[in-house]
Amino acid sequence: EVQLVESGGGSVQAGGSLRLSCKTSGFTLTDTDMGWFRQAPGDECELVSRIYSGGRIYNRYSGEGRFTISRDNVKNTVYLQMNNLKPEDTAVYHCSAVVGSLWYPDPCRGRGQGTQVTVSS
Predict the structure, then answer these.
(1) pLDDT digits (tens, 9 = 90+) for 23-60
(2) What pLDDT, on a 0 to 100 scale, did the predictor assign at position 63?
(3) Predicted pLDDT of residue 30
């Protein structure tokens, strides 16, 4: 059974950092594309960063250099390092895996646990 458990969210002031973790089980991490999504109330769900099975990385905000996705194949964990956080980064962050060409759990339908990130100014 595919399981993803997010952690690491919290409340920080603008300019602070957080590292989100996504502990995975039930599949081979190195064979699977992983992504971090976020959704704030009233906003669209968006893919923040993706790490492909081969290691290639997509970062929605690559120009800012604030978010870094990585994975630890031994710990079966995917991370999202977030630096210089801004109030607009406030959202629930979801970790998802590509299973059978679809994101699982569906991050844009409120599925999955998620972890809340709140950034105050």
Answers:
(1) 999 999 999 999 999 999 889 999 999 999 999 999 99
(2) 86
(3) 93
Per DSSP (E only), the strands in the chain are: 3-7, 10-13, 18-25, 34-39, 46-51, 57-59, 67-72, 77-82, 91-99, 102-104, 115-120
- Count other Cβ atoms within 10 Å, centred on residue 65: 10
Phi, psi of 53 (to 5 degrees): -60, -35
Torsion of CA 54, 56, 57, 63, to 10 degrees: 180
| Integer Cα distance of 16 and 12 in angstroms | 6
Segments in 1-121 forming alpha helices (H): none
Other CB atoms within 10 A of residue 25 CB? 11
Which tokens sit at 9? 């969210």
Closest C-alpha among 13, 12, 7, 17 to residue 78: 7
With beta carbons less than 8 A apart as the criterion, state whether 89 and 65 touch: no
Q: pLDDT category, 107, cuts 50, 70, 90?
A: confident
